[in-house]
Amino acid sequence: MTAKERAVKLVPLPSNAYVREEDLGKRPILDIRHLGIDFGGLTAVSDFNLVIGRTEITGLIGPNGAGKTTVFNLLTNVYTPSRGSILLDGYDTKGKSTWQLNRMGIARTFQNIRLFKNVSVLDNVKIGLSGETDCSLVSSIFRLPKYWRSERIANERALELLSVFDMQDMAGQLAGSLPYGAQRRLEIVRALATNPSLLLLDEPAAGMNPSETGELMENIRRIRDTFKIAICLIEHDMNLVMGVCDGIAVLNYGEIIAKGTPRQIKSNPKVIEAYLGKKEEKSDAES
Fold first, then answer.
1. Digit-coded pLDDT (tens) for 132-161
2. What DSSP letter does each residue of 205-249 carry, written as one string?
3. Which long-range contacts (CB under 8 A, 24 or more apart) does 211-219 make?
4. Burial classification of residue 132, based on how many CB atoms lie within 10 Å of its CB (0-12 exposed, 13-18 middle, 19 or more buried)
């Protein structure tokens, strides 16, 4: 796919947000309004506003300590916002537990891999499918026909999801025995097993070599196109961000300082200053 074919058009909404042209006229999957959180006297995130279209791949970038992971923790109610609102597919997430938000359609991965390492690859994915199984406790205990039917369906679905990353042949291996990059991919597959409408990826390319990162880039596009979902990722690998994201939001000191296409973000003076620092003007004596 050429760069021209990948080019997308972001169009403005009345709220001053931007979404992909393909998502125009559809309710955004995520609408964050004036979100903020304080820890003691410190404001970690302030007046954070972001809209993500239903099939948009959004990058959330910024210098270390900008508040990116804090935003993800707010979106999944690991932290309770001090102010503002989060609408997931039009529904307010206030007061919802993390597992309730997962049922509503939001799934995430973490900076530090969180797999059941002494369990098989297949069973790790099936854990993500647990909300979709239609099997009672009695059927499970006594191994009734409904249990075996449910197990067969879960196995087939788990293998289908693993095939997205060409990992079906690893199904019987212990998750902890996989190479680092494969463990990263498995965590994404397990998140997909919960059938999300919004997938949050926290530094998915961390620890990957350039070849694995290039493969991840293609897989992120494939996930969006196959499952018709939105993806928001935090990432420090700018080649991945610029290569896969439709829109990019830049966070600095807990505030969004820019949002636009990769081309717009590359040349934005505020973004350059946030990453590289402000150039000091030379005095007349120095020039």
1. 555 555 455 645 566 657 778 889 999 999
2. TTT--HHHHHHHHHHHHHHHHHHT-EEEEE-S-HHHHHHH-SEEE
3. 212/181, 213/237, 213/239, 213/240, 216/184, 216/185, 216/240, 217/243, 217/244, 219/164, 219/165, 219/185, 219/188
4. middle
Select from 271, 265, 231 the least CA-distant residue to 248: 265
- Residue 256's H or E segment, with its range, is strand 255-260
3 state DSSP class of 33: strand
Give per-residue pLDDT as tens, 220-253: 999 999 999 999 999 999 999 999 999 999 999 9
Q: With beta carbons less than 8 A apart as the criterion, state whether 235 and 241 touch.
A: yes
* CA distances, 250 to each of 20, 65, 176, 196, 281 (Å): 17, 13, 34, 24, 25
18 touches 39 (CB < 8 A): no
Which residue, chain included where needed, has tokens 């990353």? Answer: 165
Q: Is 13 exposed, middle or buried (0-12, 13-18, 19+ CB in 10 A)?
A: middle
CB atoms within 10 A of CB 255: 17
Structure tokens at 15: 């709220």
Q: In angstroms, rounded to a whole number, what is the distance separating the alpha carbons of residues 81 and 66?
A: 17
Q: Are the beta carbons of 124 and 115 closer than 8 angstroms? A: yes
For every residue of 69-137, DSSP letters joined together read HHHHHHHTTSS--SEEEEEETTEE-TT--HHHHHHHTEEE--SS----TTSBHHHHHHHHTGGG----H
Tokens of 241: 């961000």
What is the C-alpha separation between 229 and 132, in angstroms, rounded?
A: 18
The pTM of the full predicted model, rounded to 2 decimals, is 0.85
How would you classify residue 243: left for phi > 0, otherwise alpha for psi between -120 and 50, otherwise beta?
A: alpha
Structure tokens belonging to residue 219: 């897989």
